Structures are given as C-alpha cells and as structure tokens.
Amino acid sequence: MEKLYTASVTAKGGRNGHIKSSDSQIEFEVRAPREMGGQGGATNPEQLFAAAWGPCYLGALGSIAKREGVDVSEASVTVHISFNQDGNTALLSAELDVHIPGISTEEAQTLAEKANRACPYSKATRGNIETKVTAL
Q: Fewer CB within 10 Å of terminal CB in the chain, N or C?
C-alpha cells in the first residue's frame, strides 16, 4: 500500500474542545450538542464525520458512474451520523440519502450501493456501524 496523502488534525479538550489541522485549513471549537447535554453552538464529531464521508462517497459514485456511462455531476448525498446509546455502550449509525437527477430511483439505488462498496469511508465503517444507503 502506498500512502498518497496523510491528513493530520490535533484535538484538545474532547467533545468540548478545539481542533486544528497541521496546515491550519481547519481550526475551530467543538462542542457537544444540546441533545447530548452539551452547550451546542459549535460543530461536533458527528457533523465532522458526515462532512468528510459525503465528498468521499460522491467521489466513489463519480468513478462508478463514469465507468457505466452515467452522468452524476448533479448528484448529492446527505450523510446522517447518529450517536446512539445501547445500555452503557455508545454506538454510531449512518444513513446516506443519495439523490441522482435524471435517472430512475432503481438505477440510482444500484449506483448508490456500488458507490457504498467502493468508498473508502464506507469500507472503513463496514461491519462496524449500521449503515443504510437510500436513493431518493
């Protein structure tokens, strides 16, 4: 395996802290959301995870669609990351809502599932968190 790029982000203070990337492109406060007893008012790890997964997923979708001759240039994905409690255990779950204009829902679902198998974030989470991919 050849490393092509490595991103580095330093976090301090946990869910109520600060993050900064090594190139200073990302630097901001993080706060636990009100729904989890926090003060809110800043981003949180679940939003950041969703923000990272979405573009990566669309990249995989674009690669798959190009091979199949389908235009997905207007496609979008909304990634929902949920923080769940199961007894004393905290678990994440994900839902990816995929919209691909100009094709049938069935064709979009097929492409969405193929992209989910190819996306590095989807691969990293497979078998680790419950994930649902739905073409809208």
A: N
